[in-house]
Amino acid sequence: MLATNWERLQPRLIESIWETLYMVSLTMLAGGIAGLVVGVLLTTTRRGGILQNGPVYWLLNLLVNIIRPIPFIILIAAIGPVTKAAIGTTVGTEAATFVMAIAATFAVARIVEQNLVAVDPGVIEAARAMGASPARIIWDVLVKEALGPIILGYTFIFIAVIDMSAMAGYIGGGGLGDFAITYGYKTFDWNVTLVATIIIIVMVQLAQGLGNWLSHKVMHR
What we know:
The mean pLDDT is 90. The longest helix has 39 residues, at 6-44. The chain has ten helices and no strands. 78% of the residues lie in helices and 0% in strands. The N and C termini lie far apart (55 Å).
């Protein structure tokens, strides 16, 4: 086995790290915000919700149930025409990030919904009795009461998004997954694969540690 030429691979490794951070950050920003909105709507438009609306809830619930279970690698192909219309191409980092944001949106939505519906209904009714507006109930009661578990949910999604970014190489998205496959697996250089894997593990551990810390601070404030 030949020694790994890190002098040649180091620039590409650094570029791959930035590609992964770019895809994950943009996905969490777009998917995190959109997922929060969809999750809040799923909670408030259901029967008995403060914005009860059967057709809206039915449509959103159907979309989440259809898209969320689709494996990411299949989703890339399944929404290719949508990606093409929105981004102008179905390959590259931007195309991969678009698909990742779609997947993250519906995953976040379900996690947000599950945490919001667990909020004590008595607290909501008390806010209603005091004349609080729906917007204030959503932010000051629902979201704030469930904020700790929601942070843990976002941490879980962040780690899942890192996993998705590792598959972005299939459509030329780059990132550490593509680096590990192209310069490690395909060339039988296990050192490259190991280094890329370790970097991903470090990212996950840092994200999990930060999420646990933030959640603990929120729930014990």
